[in-house]
Design brief:
about 325 residues, single chain, 16 helices, about 0% strand
Length: about 325
Protein backbone atom coordinates (compact mmCIF):
# COMPACT_ATOMS: atom_id res chain seq x y z
CA UNK A 1 0.00 0.00 0.00
CA UNK A 2 1.38 3.36 -1.03
CA UNK A 3 1.49 6.02 1.67
CA UNK A 4 0.21 9.50 0.75
CA UNK A 5 2.76 12.21 -0.10
CA UNK A 6 4.06 14.09 2.91
CA UNK A 7 2.66 17.38 1.60
CA UNK A 8 -0.86 15.89 1.55
CA UNK A 9 -0.78 14.69 5.15
CA UNK A 10 -2.86 16.95 7.37
CA UNK A 11 -0.99 17.59 10.58
CA UNK A 12 -2.82 18.71 13.73
CA UNK A 13 -1.93 22.18 14.99
CA UNK A 14 0.23 21.95 18.08
CA UNK A 15 0.23 25.66 18.99
CA UNK A 16 -2.12 28.52 19.68
CA UNK A 17 -2.74 30.75 16.70
CA UNK A 18 -3.33 34.50 16.67
CA UNK A 19 -7.10 34.07 16.82
CA UNK A 20 -6.96 31.81 19.87
CA UNK A 21 -4.56 34.19 21.68
CA UNK A 22 -6.80 37.22 21.02
CA UNK A 23 -9.87 35.27 22.16
CA UNK A 24 -8.13 34.23 25.40
CA UNK A 25 -7.03 37.80 26.11
CA UNK A 26 -10.54 39.16 25.51
CA UNK A 27 -12.01 36.44 27.74
CA UNK A 28 -9.49 37.21 30.49
CA UNK A 29 -10.33 40.93 30.33
CA UNK A 30 -14.06 40.24 30.50
CA UNK A 31 -13.74 37.87 33.44
CA UNK A 32 -11.23 39.98 35.33
CA UNK A 33 -12.72 43.40 34.58
CA UNK A 34 -13.84 44.07 38.15
CA UNK A 35 -10.25 43.60 39.37
CA UNK A 36 -8.57 45.31 36.41
CA UNK A 37 -10.59 48.55 36.40
CA UNK A 38 -9.19 49.88 39.74
CA UNK A 39 -5.66 49.23 38.47
CA UNK A 40 -6.24 51.55 35.50
CA UNK A 41 -6.26 54.53 37.88
CA UNK A 42 -2.78 53.70 39.21
CA UNK A 43 -0.33 56.59 38.53
CA UNK A 44 2.32 54.25 37.04
CA UNK A 45 -0.13 52.85 34.51
CA UNK A 46 -1.28 56.37 33.61
CA UNK A 47 2.34 57.36 32.99
CA UNK A 48 2.94 54.23 30.92
CA UNK A 49 -0.14 54.87 28.78
CA UNK A 50 0.84 58.51 28.23
CA UNK A 51 4.33 57.56 27.02
CA UNK A 52 2.96 54.72 24.90
CA UNK A 53 0.37 56.92 23.16
CA UNK A 54 2.94 59.68 22.62
CA UNK A 55 5.38 57.30 20.92
CA UNK A 56 2.68 55.81 18.69
CA UNK A 57 1.15 59.17 17.71
CA UNK A 58 4.56 60.69 16.92
CA UNK A 59 5.65 57.70 14.88
CA UNK A 60 2.54 56.86 12.88
CA UNK A 61 2.64 59.76 10.34
CA UNK A 62 6.21 58.85 9.37
CA UNK A 63 5.28 55.21 9.15
CA UNK A 64 2.44 56.05 6.75
CA UNK A 65 4.70 58.28 4.62
CA UNK A 66 7.34 55.56 4.54
CA UNK A 67 5.05 52.75 3.41
CA UNK A 68 3.42 54.93 0.73
CA UNK A 69 6.81 55.96 -0.70
CA UNK A 70 7.95 52.35 -0.50
CA UNK A 71 4.88 51.21 -2.43
CA UNK A 72 5.29 53.90 -5.10
CA UNK A 73 8.93 53.00 -5.73
CA UNK A 74 8.34 49.25 -5.50
CA UNK A 75 5.59 49.51 -8.12
CA UNK A 76 7.47 51.82 -10.51
CA UNK A 77 11.14 50.86 -10.04
CA UNK A 78 11.62 47.50 -11.68
CA UNK A 79 14.40 45.04 -10.89
CA UNK A 80 15.58 45.43 -14.50
CA UNK A 81 16.32 49.09 -13.86
CA UNK A 82 18.35 48.19 -10.76
CA UNK A 83 20.18 45.54 -12.77
CA UNK A 84 21.25 48.19 -15.30
CA UNK A 85 22.28 50.65 -12.58
CA UNK A 86 24.34 48.24 -10.43
CA UNK A 87 27.88 47.65 -11.79
CA UNK A 88 28.74 44.17 -12.98
CA UNK A 89 31.85 44.10 -10.73
CA UNK A 90 30.48 43.01 -7.29
CA UNK A 91 33.32 44.75 -5.39
CA UNK A 92 32.25 48.06 -6.93
CA UNK A 93 28.58 47.10 -6.87
CA UNK A 94 28.55 46.78 -3.06
CA UNK A 95 29.06 50.51 -2.28
CA UNK A 96 26.81 51.47 -5.21
CA UNK A 97 24.05 49.23 -3.82
CA UNK A 98 24.56 50.85 -0.42
CA UNK A 99 24.05 54.33 -1.80
CA UNK A 100 21.12 53.09 -3.92
CA UNK A 101 19.36 52.24 -0.65
CA UNK A 102 18.56 55.96 -0.38
CA UNK A 103 16.02 55.52 -3.16
CA UNK A 104 13.88 52.87 -1.49
CA UNK A 105 12.00 54.19 1.53
CA UNK A 106 10.39 51.31 3.37
CA UNK A 107 10.60 49.04 6.37
CA UNK A 108 12.94 46.11 6.85
CA UNK A 109 10.15 43.66 6.06
CA UNK A 110 9.94 44.99 2.49
CA UNK A 111 13.71 44.89 1.94
CA UNK A 112 14.02 41.13 2.58
CA UNK A 113 11.77 39.95 -0.30
CA UNK A 114 13.27 42.61 -2.60
CA UNK A 115 16.80 41.37 -1.86
CA UNK A 116 15.67 37.79 -2.46
CA UNK A 117 14.14 38.80 -5.75
CA UNK A 118 17.36 40.58 -6.82
CA UNK A 119 19.41 37.43 -6.10
CA UNK A 120 16.96 35.34 -8.07
CA UNK A 121 17.33 37.74 -11.01
CA UNK A 122 21.09 37.13 -11.09
CA UNK A 123 22.46 40.03 -9.04
CA UNK A 124 25.40 39.03 -6.79
CA UNK A 125 24.27 38.15 -3.23
CA UNK A 126 26.81 40.62 -1.77
CA UNK A 127 25.21 43.46 -3.76
CA UNK A 128 21.63 42.43 -2.95
CA UNK A 129 22.35 41.99 0.77
CA UNK A 130 24.09 45.38 0.91
CA UNK A 131 20.93 46.89 -0.54
CA UNK A 132 18.91 44.92 2.03
CA UNK A 133 20.88 46.49 4.90
CA UNK A 134 21.09 50.02 3.50
CA UNK A 135 17.56 50.64 2.22
CA UNK A 136 15.70 50.59 5.57
CA UNK A 137 18.45 52.55 7.35
CA UNK A 138 19.41 55.53 5.19
CA UNK A 139 16.31 56.40 3.16
CA UNK A 140 14.91 59.95 3.32
CA UNK A 141 11.94 59.03 5.55
CA UNK A 142 14.31 57.62 8.19
CA UNK A 143 16.59 60.65 8.01
CA UNK A 144 13.65 63.08 8.35
CA UNK A 145 12.18 61.21 11.32
CA UNK A 146 15.63 61.20 12.98
CA UNK A 147 15.95 64.96 12.47
CA UNK A 148 12.51 65.52 14.03
CA UNK A 149 13.23 63.20 16.97
CA UNK A 150 16.59 64.90 17.65
CA UNK A 151 15.87 68.62 17.06
CA UNK A 152 18.98 70.79 17.01
CA UNK A 153 21.24 67.73 16.59
CA UNK A 154 22.06 67.46 12.86
CA UNK A 155 25.18 65.53 13.83
CA UNK A 156 22.95 62.62 14.96
CA UNK A 157 21.35 62.48 11.48
CA UNK A 158 24.76 62.53 9.77
CA UNK A 159 26.17 59.95 12.20
CA UNK A 160 23.23 57.59 11.62
CA UNK A 161 23.60 57.86 7.84
CA UNK A 162 27.37 57.29 7.87
CA UNK A 163 27.32 54.42 10.40
CA UNK A 164 24.41 52.62 8.69
CA UNK A 165 25.95 52.95 5.22
CA UNK A 166 29.32 51.82 6.59
CA UNK A 167 27.67 48.77 8.16
CA UNK A 168 25.93 47.81 4.91
CA UNK A 169 29.09 48.17 2.79
CA UNK A 170 31.38 46.32 5.23
CA UNK A 171 28.92 43.42 5.53
CA UNK A 172 28.52 43.38 1.73
CA UNK A 173 32.26 43.04 1.24
CA UNK A 174 32.33 40.31 3.92
CA UNK A 175 29.64 38.40 2.01
CA UNK A 176 31.67 38.85 -1.18
CA UNK A 177 34.78 37.48 0.52
CA UNK A 178 32.89 34.43 1.80
CA UNK A 179 31.74 33.48 -1.69
CA UNK A 180 30.35 29.96 -1.88
CA UNK A 181 31.26 29.32 1.77
CA UNK A 182 28.19 31.39 2.73
CA UNK A 183 25.27 29.01 2.01
CA UNK A 184 22.37 30.97 0.53
CA UNK A 185 19.24 28.99 -0.22
CA UNK A 186 17.78 29.94 -3.60
CA UNK A 187 14.18 28.91 -2.83
CA UNK A 188 13.10 32.52 -2.92
CA UNK A 189 9.44 33.36 -3.02
CA UNK A 190 8.32 35.89 -5.60
CA UNK A 191 6.41 38.94 -4.42
CA UNK A 192 4.01 40.78 -6.70
CA UNK A 193 5.42 39.53 -9.99
CA UNK A 194 1.96 38.51 -11.23
CA UNK A 195 0.28 41.74 -10.09
CA UNK A 196 -0.54 44.94 -11.95
CA UNK A 197 1.19 48.12 -10.76
CA UNK A 198 -1.97 49.20 -8.93
CA UNK A 199 -2.36 45.82 -7.22
CA UNK A 200 1.32 45.77 -6.28
CA UNK A 201 1.05 49.30 -4.82
CA UNK A 202 -1.99 48.39 -2.70
CA UNK A 203 -0.49 45.08 -1.57
CA UNK A 204 2.84 46.72 -0.65
CA UNK A 205 1.07 49.40 1.41
CA UNK A 206 -1.07 46.80 3.17
CA UNK A 207 1.85 44.44 3.84
CA UNK A 208 4.33 47.08 5.03
CA UNK A 209 1.85 48.98 7.18
CA UNK A 210 0.39 45.95 8.95
CA UNK A 211 3.83 44.49 9.68
CA UNK A 212 5.48 47.75 10.71
CA UNK A 213 2.49 49.04 12.72
CA UNK A 214 2.32 45.83 14.74
CA UNK A 215 6.01 45.92 15.58
CA UNK A 216 5.74 49.66 16.32
CA UNK A 217 3.02 49.02 18.92
CA UNK A 218 5.04 46.19 20.51
CA UNK A 219 8.15 48.36 20.64
CA UNK A 220 6.21 51.29 22.10
CA UNK A 221 4.75 49.00 24.79
CA UNK A 222 8.23 47.80 25.77
CA UNK A 223 9.80 51.27 25.59
CA UNK A 224 7.03 52.82 27.70
CA UNK A 225 7.35 49.93 30.16
CA UNK A 226 11.10 50.42 30.53
CA UNK A 227 10.68 54.16 30.96
CA UNK A 228 7.90 53.71 33.54
CA UNK A 229 8.57 50.57 35.57
CA UNK A 230 12.33 50.11 35.52
CA UNK A 231 13.72 52.10 38.49
CA UNK A 232 15.53 55.19 37.31
CA UNK A 233 18.51 54.33 39.51
CA UNK A 234 19.04 51.05 37.60
CA UNK A 235 18.71 52.78 34.24
CA UNK A 236 21.15 55.49 35.26
CA UNK A 237 23.57 52.86 36.54
CA UNK A 238 23.55 51.07 33.19
CA UNK A 239 23.46 54.29 31.19
CA UNK A 240 26.38 55.72 33.08
CA UNK A 241 28.71 52.93 31.94
CA UNK A 242 29.86 53.45 28.38
CA UNK A 243 30.29 49.82 27.34
CA UNK A 244 27.31 48.47 29.26
CA UNK A 245 25.09 51.28 27.96
CA UNK A 246 26.06 50.53 24.36
CA UNK A 247 25.51 46.78 24.75
CA UNK A 248 22.19 47.33 26.54
CA UNK A 249 20.73 49.48 23.76
CA UNK A 250 22.15 47.15 21.09
CA UNK A 251 20.37 44.23 22.76
CA UNK A 252 17.21 46.30 23.16
CA UNK A 253 17.25 47.28 19.47
CA UNK A 254 17.58 43.61 18.48
CA UNK A 255 14.75 42.46 20.74
CA UNK A 256 12.10 45.15 20.27
CA UNK A 257 12.35 45.10 16.43
CA UNK A 258 11.08 48.62 15.84
CA UNK A 259 10.36 50.05 12.40
CA UNK A 260 13.29 52.13 11.17
CA UNK A 261 10.98 55.03 10.30
CA UNK A 262 9.84 55.41 13.91
CA UNK A 263 12.67 54.10 16.10
CA UNK A 264 14.31 57.53 16.42
CA UNK A 265 11.50 58.69 18.70
CA UNK A 266 12.06 55.73 21.00
CA UNK A 267 15.82 56.34 21.00
CA UNK A 268 15.31 60.00 21.88
CA UNK A 269 13.31 58.96 24.94
CA UNK A 270 16.37 57.22 26.46
CA UNK A 271 17.58 60.47 27.94
CA UNK A 272 19.91 58.82 30.48
CA UNK A 273 22.02 57.12 27.79
CA UNK A 274 24.86 58.69 25.84
CA UNK A 275 24.40 59.84 22.24
CA UNK A 276 26.73 57.06 21.11
CA UNK A 277 24.55 54.43 22.81
CA UNK A 278 21.47 55.96 21.12
CA UNK A 279 23.31 55.83 17.79
CA UNK A 280 24.05 52.13 18.35
CA UNK A 281 20.31 51.61 18.91
CA UNK A 282 19.53 53.43 15.64
CA UNK A 283 22.10 51.51 13.59
CA UNK A 284 21.62 47.99 14.99
CA UNK A 285 17.81 47.96 14.81
CA UNK A 286 17.33 48.50 11.04
CA UNK A 287 20.29 46.22 10.26
CA UNK A 288 19.23 43.23 12.35
CA UNK A 289 16.51 42.34 14.85
CA UNK A 290 14.57 39.26 15.84
CA UNK A 291 11.97 39.57 13.11
CA UNK A 292 14.59 40.21 10.41
CA UNK A 293 16.64 37.23 11.60
CA UNK A 294 13.54 35.05 11.35
CA UNK A 295 12.64 36.40 7.90
CA UNK A 296 16.17 35.96 6.57
CA UNK A 297 16.39 32.42 7.95
CA UNK A 298 13.12 31.63 6.18
CA UNK A 299 14.15 33.30 2.91
CA UNK A 300 17.85 32.45 2.62
CA UNK A 301 18.09 29.40 4.93
CA UNK A 302 19.10 28.69 8.53
CA UNK A 303 22.83 28.05 7.84
CA UNK A 304 23.03 31.43 6.13
CA UNK A 305 21.33 33.21 9.04
CA UNK A 306 23.63 31.59 11.62
CA UNK A 307 26.63 33.21 9.92
CA UNK A 308 25.03 36.43 8.68
CA UNK A 309 23.13 37.61 11.80
CA UNK A 310 26.04 37.81 14.31
CA UNK A 311 28.32 39.44 11.72
CA UNK A 312 25.73 42.13 10.98
CA UNK A 313 25.11 42.85 14.69
CA UNK A 314 28.83 43.06 15.52
CA UNK A 315 29.57 45.24 12.48
CA UNK A 316 26.67 47.58 13.30
CA UNK A 317 27.83 48.03 16.90
CA UNK A 318 31.46 48.70 15.95
CA UNK A 319 30.49 51.07 13.13
CA UNK A 320 28.13 53.05 15.37
CA UNK A 321 30.67 53.28 18.20
CA UNK A 322 33.39 54.41 15.80
CA UNK A 323 31.23 56.99 14.04
CA UNK A 324 29.75 58.14 17.37
CA UNK A 325 33.24 58.68 18.78
CA UNK A 326 34.11 60.67 15.65
CA UNK A 327 30.98 62.80 15.11
CA UNK A 328 29.04 62.97 18.42
Amino acid sequence: MTSPPQSEVTRPRSYLGQTEVVALVVLAVLLGGRWLVPLLDHPSLATWSTIFVAIVIQSTPFLVIGVILSAVISALLSEKVLDRVVPKNPALGVPVAGVAGIGLPGCECAAVPIAGSLIRRGIAPAVALTFLLAAPAINPAVMVSTAVAFPGQPSMVVARFVASLLTAVLVGWWVLSRGARLPITKRLEAFGEDMSKREKFVETVRHDFLHAAGFLVIGAILAAGINTFVPRSIVETVAGQAVLGVLTLALFAFLVALCSESDAFVAASFTAFSDTAKLVFLVVGPAMDVKLAAMEAGTFGGPFARQFVPVVVATAILSAVGVGWWLL
